[in-house]
Amino acid sequence: MKKSDFYYDLPEELIAQTPVEPRNSSRLMKIDRETGEINHAHFYNLCSFLKKGDLLVLNDSRVLPARLYGVKTENGTPIEFLLLEQKGDKVWEIICRPGKKAKAGTEFTFGNGKLRAVIKEVKDDGNRIAEFFCEGNFFAVLDEIGQMPLPPYITKKLEDKERYQTVYSKELGSAAAPTAGLHFTKEMLEEIKSAGIDIAYVTLHVGLGTFRPVKEDDILDHKMHSEHYMLPRETADKINNTKAAGGRIIAVGTTACRTLESVPLENGLVRESHGYTDIFIYPGYKFQLIDGLITNFHLPESTLIMLVSAFLGYDKTMNAYKTAVEERYRFFSFGDAMAIL
Questions:
Q1: Spatial CB neighbours of 207, under 8 Å, sequence gap ≥ 6
Q2: Which of 160, 200, 291, 331 suits a disulfide with 238, CB 3.0-4.6 Å?
Q3: How many domains does one find in the chain?
Q4: pLDDT (tens digit per residue) in 257-315
Q5: Residues ≥6 apart with Cβ < 8 Å to 245
Q6: In angstroms, rounded to a whole number, what is the distance separating the alpha carbons of residues 109 and 106?
Q7: Chain centre distance of CA 244
Q8: Helix 303-312 and helix 314-326: axis angle, to 10°?
Q9: Does 213 fall in a domain?
Q10: Is residue 155 part of a domain?
Q11: Dist CA 199 CA 201 (whole Å)
């Protein structure tokens, strides 16, 4: 298939710039996976579309305030760092702008001296390896002076950092939020459990590659970024028990979906696992675990809309997106949601 097959025309004003309040008041497009029939609702209606015995699988990764603004220690030249992946104790792979100012051995200062960094290596792809120095806990300092790495299509300043975190986020390490989960409130999670619907957690640390566009015309030529995931034993047991009882496994977000579809199966059973995944899911893929998907509305020609098309079907997916534009749904990270069940 061609990248252009996944293009749709999106008016710029439909790109959500700010989150709605409360979280679960966003709109929800419920789509029947078999027929493609569409119902318009709100996210707080989700429980009415679920069944007793279902299992929701959520990604509990927490976003790092990974964007740092500082200066070159030597002369005060402004610099911007974006932390990508931890490589050691206070050692990170980063993107920095302007890159020409960040040669190996150069020192930078952030937060009026609360944090310092020295470039240790310039990688072939232009990323840098930087070692950081601070008093006390690095992550506490980062939380104090860092800013959320909002996607480039969000231009408004985020007033509350926690609105780019899910209410159940726990494992620090993502460069972007697993945005399908942003719609849940703590009260709603309790309502879901009270209705006999179980909840389990996986961790997939979202990398910036999630925003990287597909450049190749033939989507089979696209190479996915690699992301670290963990599936704990408790979640494996819940998945196996749900399957055995005839319940549905519903992934909340493409990151939870990619995690579940990456874990190895032994005789049809899931086991505790962790590792890196670069799984690329596009139409024609045969799903091994999930029976339902809750997700946001994704960018045209992105790997994420390709994943949705693989699960729902290409024609039904493109029709759903056409309907979402006509009905003035809000798109992308702070936008509305769809539930494919």
A1: 84, 85, 174, 175, 176, 225, 226, 227
A2: 200
A3: 2
A4: 999 999 999 999 999 999 999 999 999 999 999 999 999 999 999 999 999 999 999 99
A5: 53
A6: 10
A7: 29
A8: 120
A9: yes
A10: no
A11: 7
